Amino acid sequence: MVEYHKREGQHIKMWGGDPGWLATDLANKEAMQKLGAPHTSVGGNEMTGIIKCERDEDVGKVVGRYGAQKW
After folding, report:
1. Bridge partners, residue 16, by sequence
2. Which of 71, 48, 44 is nearest to 58 (CA)?
3. Does pLDDT of 1 surpass 90?
4. SS3 16
5. Can you point out the beta strands (E) in the chain?
6. Strand partners, 51
7. What is the per-residue pLDDT for 67?
8. What's the rounded Cα separation, in Å, for the pair 57 and 51?
9. What pLDDT, in 10s, does the model give residues 4-45?
10. Using an 8 Å Cβ cutoff, are 20 and 65 in contact?
């Protein structure tokens, strides 16, 4: 996001992607699922939406499942 401000006016789109809390193999996946962590595809779908330009209104922000955050 630091680069975004350096590149402003150059017609470059940048976002920070936050896939959220997910049940991954980085920890005990089964325990995370029991605690309510969603499948990794949920975070993948969020990142895919950025690539498909579905979040263009949020350029320069960190975006994810829970909305957009100003950076």
Report:
1. 62
2. 71
3. no
4. strand
5. 16-18, 61-64, 67-70
6. none
7. 86
8. 13
9. 667 777 788 888 888 889 999 888 999 999 999 999 999 999
10. yes
State how far the Cα of 51 lies from the Cα of 32, in Å rounded to an integer: 27
Closest to 16 in 3D by CA, of 70, 55, 57, 63: 63
pTM of the predicted model, to two decimals? 0.68
What average pLDDT does this structure show over 64-70? 82
**Whole-angstrom Cα distance, residue 64 to residue 49?**
9
Query: Which residues are within 8 A (CB) of 41 and not within 5 positions of it... i.e. 6 or more apart?
Result: none
Which residue shows structure tokens 């975004």?
4
Q: Measured between alpha carbons, how far is 22 from 7 in angstroms, rounded to an integer?
A: 32
**Token pair recorded at residue 62:** 């960190």
Q: CA nearest 15: which of 31, 3, 6, 25?
A: 3
60, two tokens: 């320069």
